């Protein structure tokens, strides 16, 4: 299995190269040249497997340059039983009739990014051994919350890696801050910066390309890499859970082998839903992929009209991980749906960079609409959805999941298409206690973060995930705060250069 670039069809790299390198040199994203095909028989044979074995079965087809031993080491390390609060890793829960929820937040940081960021460090270190002479990989992350913690937890104590995370000192929730400042591990460091997320992000980017720092790293046999979602190594783990949920639906008797399902995904950077698209192209019987957005509805507009336009107001919502105006992974979809037209993709991406917008042909958007449907929700309906969903089904969902639930309900009302459906649930409600409690109870009266968790537990009876509850007793390890101009100094200090 070889990979090419969305902006240059002549490129051919191995999986290990794609993962170690992260992004193609001319700025394109790595994509598989062809997709492995899974017959219904093969999918059915995965029903009796554990999540780990399902993952091996799918990933083996994509990581053909990994030996069986290497693949086993990666997958067994990533999804080890002690790391996930469900023995199914990503369980599918039936809430009512044909409505099912795929819970992707049972990992160590209680958000769906664990599904990929638990595996990525393993894939990256094995890839580096193959392609980068076993250099120590230094991961630099600028985060507005979820990604930083999930990356820290994934890279914690992984041999031959170090990870440094920068977050805006006043830009993350109290729970997210505590998650990061109490991080354990010998190869991790966390630093707050005086500035906002964009400041952290641009400083990290300039450190990445600073030749003096790179030279010093090379002297110590280290290299930078990135853990963000354009890396193929973050996308490929996500394909697995679509196969896994289909198997679980078969096992629960909700469908028969070969029956189609719909999938609804709360979307930001378009990584999660794109993994669903790959699963469909590989033979998984998915009828529609429903793309759910919050008030930052740039994707809804694109999927309805064919015009992508990021020149619009940016809203800060209660589903912050979906507050995004440039959905990077859409580039991969455009590549595949346009018949691997790298020139077209390169041109559209130039238009996006230069003018902030592009429009695709009527034919292309019609093809995309065959596969994708889209909708968005207002902030008020997120609150009422959390409340109604809890009252009707005794099922508590977080703000991001609520966006998907509401868009799904609208989709069924509009189309009547109510075949068995899986709605991705991307975070534990306790990660966003203030918003969720507010929606359920209408009142959060001066409670601190842990009091809100307790109150939410009292009101709803939903289990509090251990990794969040145990934060209360953890020691704060990282208290550094620096100015954005001093971030490169901080990198020197933290890496002992
Ligand atoms: C990152 C994230 C999303 C968006 O996922 P994409 O793959 O970027 O579309 C949705 N919900 C939560 C909780 C997230 O952390």
List the helices and strands and how they pair.
Layout: E1 3-5, E2 8-13, H1 15-21, E3 30-32, H2 40-44, H3 51-62, H4 68-78, E4 92-96, E5 99-103, H5 113-117, H6 120-131, E6 136-142, H7 146-155, E7 161-168, H8 174-181, E8 188-194, H9 197-208, H10 211-219, E9 222-225, H11 232-251, E10 261-266, H12 271-281, E11 286-293, H13 298-305, E12 307-309, H14 330-337, H15 342-355, E13 357-359, H16 362-371, E14 372-376, H17 379-393, H18 399-415, E15 421-425, H19 433-441, H20 449-460, H21 466-469, E16 481-483, H22 487-495
Parallel strand pairs: 5-15, 6-7, 6-9, 7-8, 8-16, 10-11, 10-15, 11-14
Antiparallel strand pairs: 1-2, 1-3, 4-5, 12-13
Helix pairs in contact: 1-6, 3-4, 3-11, 4-6, 11-12, 17-18, 17-19, 19-20
Pyridoxal-5'-phosphate (PLP) binds at residues 111-113, 146, 229, 266-272, 321-322, 400, 426-427.
Compact description:
With 497 residues, the chain is of the alpha/beta class. The chain has helices at residues 15-21, 40-44, 51-62, 68-78, 113-117, 120-131, 146-155, 174-181, 197-208, 211-219, 232-251, 271-281, 298-305, 330-337, 342-355, 362-371, 379-393, 399-415, 433-441, 449-460, 466-469, 487-495; strands at residues 3-5, 8-13, 30-32, 92-96, 99-103, 136-142, 161-168, 188-194, 222-225, 261-266, 286-293, 307-309, 357-359, 372-376, 421-425, 481-483. Bound molecules: pyridoxal-5'-phosphate.
Description:
With 497 residues, the chain is of the alpha/beta class. Helix content is 46%, strand content 16%. It has 22 helices and 16 strands. Helix 3 packs across helix 4 and helix 19 crosses helix 20. It is globular. The model has no long low-confidence stretch (mean pLDDT 93). Pyridoxal-5'-phosphate binds next to helix 12.
